[in-house]
């Protein structure tokens, strides 16, 4: 990644009409419906944006969409990139750097995750308070990282406290039940074994997924405030583990998604 590549990506998007978005939003697996609420949308397919990776997962659309939600300009990633697709950490997080250069001042992130905490149930939403990086690397571990920001990034509070409090207030007002917890990010794409679920519980994870942490690390590198939520799509009980049905996971994400959209939309209004 070079500054020239970022400039070329940004220039392409500006020519398409992506003008000073205020909020960047990353939509996770099965969570693409938020884009239906974007007013005056402008779409840029990833395969047309210079230097962008291509989404290879069938339920990730692969578009960057610009427009307005609740009167605020947004840039929305409909489809994200994962380590398990064969990308490296710099590829995965490249769109975050592009959105930052376009002008975003806040980042919203969503994902589908499995509930490790057995008090949490599928279909619920978890507000991420902290995370555990089990992906075996960092999006900041490259030679010229200092050209883009501090090499050593503080991660004592990676998720913005003010936006978290606002989300909790919105959930209470709207009657949406939300959980709070720690998200563990693993490589995938295989699901976890019983022993791995037990280990994740022991290290303090409340939910597990295969994304989000690289984007959050880079957002902290760019000093972008972040709020992130997991839609819990399955319950990871090692003593009663059923084979995972990916289509069922997508269906549960789809059912829970309106609550996530409501939380994000109301938060946008308050910013």
List the keywords:
5-stranded mixed beta barrel; EC 2.4.2.1; 6 helices; 271 residues; purine-nucleoside phosphorylase activity; Rossmann fold; Purine_phosphorylase; alpha/beta
Structural notes for this entry:
By secondary structure, this protein is of the alpha/beta class. It has one domain: Rossmann fold. The chain is built from six helices and nine strands, in the order H-E-E-E-E-H-E-E-H-E-H-E-H-E-H. The protein has helices at 3-16, 89-102, 161-174, 194-202, 213-221, 246-270; strands spanning 23-27, 39-45, 63-69, 72-78, 106-115, 125-133, 178-185, 207-209, 226-235. A five-stranded mixed barrel has the order 5-8-7-6-9. Strand 6, helix 3 (161-174) and strand 7 (178-185) form a beta-alpha-beta unit. Helix 1 packs across helix 2, helix 2 (89-102) packs across helix 5 (213-221) and helix 3 (161-174) packs across helix 6. The longest helix is centred in the C-terminal third of the chain and has 25 residues, at 246-270. It is globular and about 55 Å long. The mean pLDDT is 94.
Average the pLDDT over all residues and give the rounded result. 94
Q: What would CATH call the homologous superfamily? A: Nucleoside phosphorylase domain
Describe the main β-sheet briefly: 5 strands, mixed, barrel
The dominant shape is globular
The percentage helix is 25-40%
Number of helices: 6
Q: Identify the CATH class.
A: Alpha Beta
CATH architecture type: 3-Layer(aba) Sandwich
Number of strands: 9
Give the termini distance in whole angstroms: 32 Å
Family: Belongs to the PNP/MTAP phosphorylase family.
GO molecular function: purine-nucleoside phosphorylase activity
Function: The purine nucleoside phosphorylases catalyze the phosphorolytic breakdown of the N-glycosidic bond in the beta-(deoxy)ribonucleoside molecules, with the formation of the corresponding free purine bases and pentose-1-phosphate.
Enzyme class: transferase
């Amino acid at each position: 990644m070079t500054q020239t590549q970022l400039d070329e990506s940004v220039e392409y998007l500006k020519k398409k009409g992506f003008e000073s978005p205020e909020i960047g939003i990353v939509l996770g697996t099965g969570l693409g419906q938020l884009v239906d609420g974007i007013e005056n949308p402008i779409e840029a397919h990833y395969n047309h944006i210079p230097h962008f990776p291509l989404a290879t997962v069938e339920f990730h659309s692969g578009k960057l969409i610009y427009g307005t939600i609740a009167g605020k300009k947004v840039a929305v990633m409909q489809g994200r990139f994962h380590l398990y697709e064969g990308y490296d950490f710099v590829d995965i997080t490249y769109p975050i750097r592009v959105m930052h250069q376009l002008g975003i001042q806040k980042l919203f992130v969503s994902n589908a995750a499995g509930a490790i905490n057995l008090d949490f149930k599928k279909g619920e939403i978890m507000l991420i308070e902290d995370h555990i990086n089990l992906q075996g690397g960092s999006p900041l571990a490259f030679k010229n990282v200092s050209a883009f920001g501090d090499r050593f990034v503080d991660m004592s509070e990676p998720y913005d406290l003010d936006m978290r409090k606002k989300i909790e207030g919105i959930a209470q007002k709207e009657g949406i039940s939300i959980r709070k917890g720690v998200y563990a990010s693993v490589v995938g794409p295989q699901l976890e074994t019983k022993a791995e679920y037990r280990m994740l519980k022991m290290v303090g994870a409340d939910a597990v997924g295969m994304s989000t942490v690289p984007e959050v690390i880079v957002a902290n590198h760019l000093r972008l405030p972040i709020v992130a939520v997991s839609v819990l799509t399955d319950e990871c009980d090692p003593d009663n583990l059923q084979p995972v049905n990916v289509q069922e996971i997508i269906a549960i994400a789809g059912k829970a998604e309106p609550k996530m959209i409501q939380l994000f939309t109301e938060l946008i209004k308050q910013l």
